[in-house]
Specification:
Structural class: mainly alpha
Strand content: under 5%
Order of helices and strands: HHHH
Distance between the termini: 29 Å
Number of strands: 0
Largest sheet: none
Helix content: 40-55%
Shape: globular
Radius of gyration: 15 Å
Number of helices: 4
Length: 112
């Protein structure tokens, strides 16, 4: 269930609300797959799953009529991410985030 007060404030129509609700379900399913992939060291899907998750997060920002801004996406909370949690929380939402180049999700890529 989405926040009805925010939906009203943002003047979201019923179709947009249903799309947001479906994206939340899709996100949870994707996160469940990612959590399972974390447990299998040989699983190479985390980077792909992360890209799909990031796309969904950006889509949610647009549907909610917020500015699309990656600074508001907490990439370090993605399953399997070993980027510095406390450092990134301290910098949220201003950017200058820290990525661990040994991270299975972000290593050797520059998504953020």
């Amino acid at each position: 269930m989405i926040n009805p007060h925010l939906a009203k404030k943002q003047e979201l129509d019923e179709c947009t609300i249903k799309t947001i609700e479906q994206l939340h379900k899709d996100r949870e399913a994707l996160l469940n797959v990612a959590r399972a992939a974390v447990d299998d060291e040989s699983d190479q899907r985390l980077k792909t799953l992360y890209s799909l998750w990031l796309f969904g997060e950006r889509k949610l920002q647009k549907l909610w009529k917020f500015e699309e801004d990656d600074n508001y996406i907490k990439f370090w909370t993605f399953p399997g991410c070993t980027c510095p949690n406390m450092d990134n929380e301290d910098n949220y939402p201003y950017g200058r985030y820290v990525q661990n180049m040994d991270c299975r999700v972000h290593g050797n890529t520059k998504e953020q």
